[in-house]
Fold these 3 entries.
Entry 1:
Amino acid sequence: MRKNIVAGNWKMNKNHMEGARLASEILDGLRGRDIGCEVILFPTFTTISSVIDVVKGSAISVGGQNLYSERDGAFTGEISAEMLKNLGCQYVLVGHSERRNIFGEDSVFLSKKLRIALEYGLFPLFCVGELLEQREAGKAGEVVEKQLKDVLNGLGGDEISRVTIAYEPVWAIGTGKTATASDAANMHSLIRDVIKSIFGSEISQRMIIMYGGSVKAGNAAQLLNEPDIDGALVGGAALKADSFLKIIYASAK
Ligand code: PEP
């Protein structure tokens, strides 16, 4: 059976002191509970170390929100896979819609990032999702299928086994609009079919596919009750321990 993952993407919020405080409140809220899901925090780069100091030895994992596509060199302002790994990160986000749409990251670039993350032993959390106009034009499935194939095609079995997917409809991110549980479940099932068509049935059944897009304490249980939805990638509601913890509690499979 697949485990659920609940991840908090803090985006460009929480300096290192605020981040350490939030991580410690989340840790307190999990103490003594059998949470039955994996919890990952994605702080901004300058906050990662402080968060790792707080959660070290606990069940909480930490990841980077981004990485660069090259190993090292003259890339002012960029962060490498090796740097993240060395700090103690286990995960890294690749293909978040804010990277795709604000920073113009395309599939060729994302493909390189995903591969370098794997090369350095990080687990990429690969995000896909359609824009509102693509959904309204009836093209959501086509867009997501292309995003998956463009980046994942060509990976070996051991590589794809270390990838997690997050379906995040762009119109639902930070907007308060959420896909209905059945719309999300339909897309998750399409994603699983695409993975099956490339990598076969066993890998597709093991693939963890999370949902992201305005997940809150009030809607988490309904979304996470869908058998094909294996957890949540949470933005806004991950910035307060109370709301993030409620989502974690709702995620027990
Ligand atoms: C996200 O940033 O991945 C996200 C889903 O944000 P929010 O929960 O705020 O919509």
Entry 2:
Amino acid sequence: MTAYDTDNIFAKILRGEIPSFTVYEDDETYCFMDIMPRSDGHCLVIPKTPCRNILDATPAQLAACMATVSKVANAAKVAFNADGITLQQFSEAAGGQEVFHLHFHIHPRHDGLPLRPAGVMGDMEVIKGHAAAIAAALT
Ligand code: AMP
């Protein structure tokens, strides 16, 4: 398996070298907004320690991420009055992965509303507001 690249964009976010909209963090995980949101409230949960994806993550990294996914998903459902949540994880290029630091996509979903296309930059002020709305719904 390819080695972890310490210069991937999420590693830079974790080091504070590029900005992000924080939703939640604890000792082991960080949750921030996706800047090309495919749904209102689209956010990402990552471990603070390095791993590429589901194929090299340790059980401890996965457990920590899932605890945060559960917390944030419930808050996002409340914040967006969502009908459901879609959780996505892509591993390696063939699996659809573009950033090679393990991450889980959380999408608040509404009945009958499809995800938007990938790769379209969002409005940063709107995204900032969505981060605040999810953070406010965290208990
Ligand atoms: P994937 O690796 O295919 O699961 O997707 C990577 C995700 O990272 C995409 O949804 C991008 O929109 C998102 N993304 C890329 N750069 C940034 C960034 N600087 N801040 C937040 N999200 C990002």
Entry 3:
Amino acid sequence: MEPKHPFLRACLRLPVERTPIWIMRQAGRYLPEYRASRGEAGDFLSLCRNTPLATEVTMQPLRRFNLDAAILFSDILVVPEAMGVPLRFATGEGPILEPPIRSADDVKRLRRIEPEKDLDYVMNAVGSIREALDDKVPLIGFSGSPWTLATYMIEGGSSKTFPNIKGMLYDQPTLLDTILDRLVEAVADYLNAQIDHGAQAVQIFDTWGGALSPKAYRAFSLEPMRRIVEKLKPTGPDGQRVPVILFSKGCGGMLEHLVASGCDVVGLDWTINIGEARKRANGAVALQGNMDPAVLYASPDRIREEARTLLEAYGPHPGHIFNLGHGISPDMNPDHVAALVDAVHSESARLHGNGSS
Ligand code: CP3
């Protein structure tokens, strides 16, 4: 049975009346109501673990804007934490995972996760958000990619140069492979549990794929993601297809390889023209993206122009989900997001031959 929601239809390259849009990090610090909820929870990780508040912050952007999908409120780093790597968020410093995984001995500390037990709060959030959504828009579940999660586990936090994981990649590739194998298993089990609990699409965030050479990207980032795609359940409990979105930031040059991974949708950052990407993808996948998040600093009129240019570059073909090329900035003016969502809907309706939006 064909899905009715424009977001799911676009993921499967079915025709839509107007281009669907959601925004990476749509629930977050740029919204005052998010900051209030985080204050109520105490801190960010407590917010993720609090079912009613995680549901509330997921719904906040949907109340303000006419978005076409919700994304589970959580974080990619809850998986390494469940595997046994302690996680904390220090103000101003970002995530800290200590002690990091650097040796074969450290790997012994990693546990196989049981998502229903170790990440029960995520599964509770998925169920609770589905209820709150009442089938108005679909829910996207997500995970980090094995490579991106490994960067945090091996560096012990955020990094710009990745000295430890890249040293391991070149000196001890089999040790890195062992860690990535464990992550393939964990991420596949985790996403399948989200699907069981009601996630209607899943996105794998490969935020740091672009830090790799083409050869290393294929071996250490893409191949583990391909194996996950192979392990994912094709349909949810309702019998509907669950599309898989791969977002490898900075990997436009790898598009043909991403297309060959078996995913349904490739997420693009803003360093590639989406019209050219569509030609190169040759109708084999849908594309998600890819406006420079910084366009939202401009005036609403300029935002509309940029949205129209991007929609026209993709053209009147099926299979486009509008998004930013990366997460929205915490200092963004919410009114500019409203301008973008309205522009995408009205301009795309015209492009698809429906004068009214
Ligand atoms: O998109 C959404 O609205 C869903 C929620 C979501 C969050 N993190 C909430 C969050 C998603 C999908 C993520 C994914 C995530 N987390 C990624 C991949 C996506 C990307 O941006 O490339 C990464 C690399 C992380 C790891 C992470 N989490 C970092 C590095 C940080 C700190 C960064 C910062 O700006 O402080 C986080 C914290 C985080 N995750 C916040 C939110 C809303 C901010 C926490 C706060 O409230 O202070």
